[in-house]
């Protein structure tokens, strides 16, 4: 099994996702898109595609020349029924590819916040827990693409997760967060930690109980396992 990971910044890596993939026996191919000479991988032999977060906007194609080709790669993977998970910016890319609006959110959100799983009667959709807490770290937000299903929401930023087709899920929050990854984000993005309504101070971010990490990391297991199983069903 081979997983492709698209990484957009040095500090925002796969975190727990990488550990879980290795435990499951995946070979991992990490494409560091922020390096100008990093070629996009061929998805044809991939068993899984993971698209990580990044500080850029989905509309910044002039500033980031690889962005247009990345969108083409993601759409190709989804249309070929390759299990695909987009995290934060990765979810925004999936939404943008399928025609949904991506724009600055009313409030920048950085911190540990509650999320609600949305009930749906649509057959074959993933079900998040009724209530859980995960890390937010975003400026933009996405609308739900046509024919996609809302899976999770929050009071701060309504659309937190969606599913499109049977093999692709986009998530606005950061289920892959580990203490090490969180410290790296704080170190590299300290200018983001302003005194705004939904931005928690450094000490509050770092003092999150271990249960927050355990619960949100479990979602990595659940979501990717679901995508792998669903993509094999006709």
From TrEMBL:
Pfam families: GATase. Coiled coil: none annotated. Residues 43-179 form the Glutamine amidotransferase domain. GO terms for cellular component: cytosol. It comes from the Bacteria. InterPro entries: ChyE-like, Class_I_gatase-like, GATASE. This is Glutamine amidotransferase domain-containing protein. The lineage of its organism: Bacteria, Pseudomonadati, Pseudomonadota, Alphaproteobacteria, Acetobacterales.
């Amino acid at each position: 099994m081979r997983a492709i990971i698209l990484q957009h910044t040095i500090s925002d890596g796969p975190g727990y996702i990488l550990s879980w993939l290795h435990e499951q026996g995946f070979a991992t191919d990490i494409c560091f898109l922020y390096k100008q000479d990093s070629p996009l991988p061929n998805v044809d032999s991939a068993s899984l595609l993971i698209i990580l977060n990044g500080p850029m906007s989905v509309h910044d194609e002039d500033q980031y020349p690889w962005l247009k080709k990345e969108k083409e790669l993601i759409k190709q993977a989804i249309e070929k029924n390759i299990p695909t998970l987009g995290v934060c910016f990765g979810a925004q890319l999936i939404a943008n590819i399928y025609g949904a609006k991506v724009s600055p959110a009313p409030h920048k959100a950085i911190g540990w916040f509650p999320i609600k799983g949305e009930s749906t009667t649509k057959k074959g959709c993933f079900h998040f827990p009724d209530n859980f807490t995960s890390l937010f770290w975003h400026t933009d937000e996405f609308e739900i693409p046509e024919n996609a299903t809302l899976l999770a929401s929050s009071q701060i930023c309504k659309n937190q997760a969606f599913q499109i087709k049977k093999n692709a899920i986009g998530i606005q929050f950061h289920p892959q967060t580990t203490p090490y990854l969180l410290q790296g984000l704080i170190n590299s993005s300290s200018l983001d930690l302003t005194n705004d309504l939904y931005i928690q101070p450094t000490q509050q971010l770092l003092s999150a109980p271990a249960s927050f990490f355990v619960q949100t990391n479990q979602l990595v297991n659940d979501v990717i396992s679901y995508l792998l199983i669903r993509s094999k069903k006709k």
